[in-house]
Design goal:
The chain is mostly helical and about 400 residues long. The protein is about 75% helix and about 0% strand. Strands 1-2 form a two-stranded antiparallel ribbon. Helix 14 packs parallel to helix 16.
């Protein structure tokens, strides 16, 4: 059975309108990426693409947890302070106490876990809004950071701890200066993506759900595969596969599965979409809320480890404004201000868009003031688009 051009056109339209939030941010990301590539040739250099991953990995880690909090219908304003506190704890353990690097990592994770339990208790079981609890937490944990560091910086970590955010895994550099190991890893990732998409398509057909025409499906696989392999080859021309990219990939895959295929993830969407309906359906709202904030605390500690390793130091002012970067990544990536809507992949695209935007403006020599203005405008437009989209959806009901 052949597919006509008209059917492909309908498939493209359905693919775009099925999730207009995701489609819009993807188009915006591609447009900004191409714009900076045209304006500044260094933007596409292997070294610069590697630096984008290294410099903005903490935002993507925070955005992963923040997306879950926002989908729940809450907000967390304390993650920047938690990043600073956990980095300070790790620095005290590794630098001051001369403990092994993994002890510092475990200490930071333990602090993040305790922070998540503390804030989750007040939000879930006492009933204080997350905005207030985490606003208080922002002040509390920032003050604790100053106490732990004694109002001074600690450095350097060096060794294995430093390699967490600055290390690379590479195998063999061929005659063209390309790390074969990195290329192979990205090729395996492309194959895995293709298999996953094929299985998802077959499952949708089995449940008699609509799918895009086969030519469009194959074209999507080819385009995604080509882009991923090109990006992998660029990293392979630089220093190889960043260790922090492996961590990010594991988090994205793991949390995407949690949010889309687990009972816990579906309950988060249910609570954010309609709290009363979720309670009447038997969803344990308090328990889900508590563990969502615990998860945010742990991921904030992971970001604290990565950021302190990247800067090779712990500073009292570390993590300043990080919460706004994470929140912006989620809203730009398609999360709804009213909760119940959003995907991990969308938050990642939103975070990358912010990173690409900042990196491109730095390459063009734009000052910090204009960068903040543009970031603010982008965030405002993203939220305005969400409001417009919700009103349009309500009008068509």
């Amino acid at each position: 059975m052949t597919t006509t051009v008209a059917e492909v056109g309908v498939g493209v339209r359905n693919l775009v309108t099925r999730n207009v939030r995701q489609s819009g941010i993807f188009v915006a990301f591609v447009a900004i990426f191409v714009l900076f590539a045209v304006l500044k040739s260094e933007f596409l250099s292997p070294g610069n693409l590697t630096n984008i991953i290294l410099q903005y990995s903490y935002v993507l880690i925070l955005a992963t947890g923040m997306l879950m909090v926002i989908v729940l219908g809450q907000i967390d304003l304390s993650v920047g302070a938690v990043v600073a506190l956990t980095g300070a704890v790790a620095a005290n353990v590794v630098i001051k106490e001369h403990a092994p690097w993994y002890v510092g990592v475990l200490a930071a994770l333990a602090v993040g876990l305790l922070v998540g339990c503390w804030q989750g208790f007040w939000v879930a079981y006492v009933g204080i809004p997350g905005f207030i609890v985490t606003l208080a937490g922002m002040l509390l944990f920032r003050g604790l950071t100053y106490m732990v560091l004694g109002n001074s910086s600690l450095s350097p970590f060096n060794g294995t701890y430093y390699r967490i955010a600055n290390g690379f895994i590479n195998g063999w550099f061929g005659g063209y200066g390309i790390d074969v190991f990195t290329v192979v890893v990205f090729a395996i990732a492309v194959v895995g993506y293709a298999v996953s998409q094929w299985r998802t398509r077959r499952a949708r057909i089995a449940y008699q759900q609509s799918v895009e025409p086969m030519p469009l499906f194959l074209a999507k696989l080819v385009v995604v595969g080509a882009v991923v392999l090109w990006f992998g080859s660029q990293l392979a021309r630089s220093r190889g596969l960043p260790i922090v990219l492996i961590l990010l990939a594991a988090l994205i895959i793991g949390y995407s599965i949690v949010m889309q295929r687990s009972v816990f993830g579906r309950h988060i969407y249910a609570i954010g979409g309609n709290l009363n309906a979720a309670q009447l359906s038997g969803v344990k709202v308090r328990r889900i809320t508590f563990w969502t904030f615990v998860n945010m605390g742990v991921l904030a500690s992971v970001a604290g480890i990565v950021f302190s390793a990247r800067t090779n130091s712990a500073q009292p002012g570390a993590g300043n404004m990080f919460e706004l970067d994470a929140i912006a990544a989620c809203f730009i990536g398609g999360a709804s201000t009213s909760g119940g809507v959003g995907r991990i992949t969308g938050a990642m695209i939103g975070g990358l868009l912010m990173g690409v935007l900042a990196n491109g403006m730095q390459l063009l020599g734009w000052g910090q003031s204009i960068q903040l203005v543009i970031k603010g405008i982008v965030l405002l437009l993203a939220v305005a688009f969400d409001v417009w989209n919700r009103r349009r959806a309500e009008a068509t009901r």
